[in-house]
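I am writing to request your help with a piece of structural work I have in hand. I set the record out below, with my sincere thanks for your time.
___
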Amino acid sequence: MQLNKIFKGLVIALPVVTMVACSSGPSEAELEAERNRVAQEQAEADRKAQEAKDAQIQAGSVNRMLTPVEEMRKELAALENNQVVYFDFDRASISSKFYSVLDQHAAFLTKHSDKSVVIEGHCDSRGTPEYNIALGESRAKSIQTYLLNAGVSASQISVVSYGEEKPINSYNTEAAFAENRRGVLVYQ
């Protein structure tokens, strides 16, 4: 009997406890207030981010102009990253794919008549040393002729041939030979 009373009490208490637990959450007004607060914080963060972006744009638009010497050094550094002309086996003629490289060098040299360049001619290890010296010189002179035709003064250009003496890749493979058949523009 006592067990029956306890059971009846639990049956009545359980729905009451459940209702109390469900009603203890935030009201609709409280939820709306929280949403408004979050929206205001987001709007404030967006406004600050836009102000920072605007300030950065204004500061970035005032770039310091480079002096002529700084500009020349910048141009020269770019050219030194692109100063090699490669040649086919046993050839001294310049491939058309290197015309743009040589045009950039020619433009720099005509603009800066106080600068000079040494054109180094190189070969792979095939052939006699004498033949490779002559071929290296022919390759360097091909580059020289191209630059002269582009308006560079002859006094700005010197030519030297290293033949096979300064390989960039010492392996005896076709890829290594191709790397060694080159002309290099070295600024003084």
